[in-house]
Amino acid sequence: MRRTIGLLVLTLAVVAAASSARARTLDQILSSGEIRVGVNPNYPPNAMYNNKNQLVGFEVDVAERLAKMLGVKAAFVVVNPASRVPFIVADKIDVVMGGMTRTPDRAKVISFSVPINTEAPGVLTTDAVPYETPAQMNTPRATFAEVRGTTDVPLLQRQLPQAKILFLEDWADAVRAVADGRATAVLADPAFYSTLLGNFPNVKWKVLKGSVGQVYYDCLGLAMGNDALRHWLNVALFSLETEGFVEKDWEKWHHAAMVVPVVPQPYF
């Protein structure tokens, strides 16, 4: 299994290296008048559709602000956790958001900007279950509803290996699975499910004390070798973070500060 995964990563890396030559450069983006941004509308409040069928949310605001700074239009492309990296490799988008966590394996295939926000995994469940800490859920009696293709899945398999996993396509389905009793809990950063809890007014939710695993950093993903674009994004994000735009907009959509704030660094 480990060898198969290694060969897959190597193959994707070769494809990515070849595709990066076709990725649009900063000059080409400027000439086209638009930057293509991948977002996932199933990650509220980072990105979602409003009642006018318009994309809104934290990541949408950041992308539109970056596009304005660049002097172009933000052209949004819908992605999901499984398609985010392939869309970059295939040059269907210039940058990708959608909760794009920076990991060593992904960095073999695509490049990353400086972090925009953090994710600190926690356990969401209900008061109908007896567990008080994440460690108590390391049992076959516990079933976690998780989104396929996210970093929470391997984390759960490492930290709570005896627990079962119900794979679903988005966070709305995962929260619904816990609400209707098909699953015991969700392991994820609270930012990904906080706005969904109000859809179940009769459920008494609780978040267990303690984070599970390390803090993750979400960035803009882009093609390997697209250095001019990556450098511009880093400078622009540093400006947005130091002026307080990122922090204020996060709190606007999430109604709370980040669990672990991003500290802007002037060195890229």
Largest sheet: 5 strands, mixed
Kindly report the oligomeric state of this protein.
single chain
The end-to-end span amounts to 35 Å
Structural class: alpha/beta
Provide the helix percentage: 25-40%
Task: Specify the overall morphology.
Answer: elongated
Architecture (CATH level 2) name of the largest domain: 3-Layer(aba) Sandwich
What is the count of distinct domains? 2
Number of strands: 14
| CATH superfamily label of the largest domain | Periplasmic binding protein-like II
**Mean pLDDT, rounded to whole units?**
89
Under CATH, the topology of the largest domain can be stated as: D-Maltodextrin-Binding Protein, domain 2
How much beta, percentage-wise? Answer: 15-25%
Q: SSE order, as H and E? A: HHEEEHEHEEEEEHEHEEEEHH
Number of helices: 8
Q: Radius of gyration over alpha carbons?
A: 19 Å
Which CATH first-tier class of the largest domain would you pick? Alpha Beta
Spatial strand order of the main sheet: 4-1-5-14-6
Which stretches are low in confidence, meaning pLDDT under 50 for 5 or more residues running? 1-11, 16-21
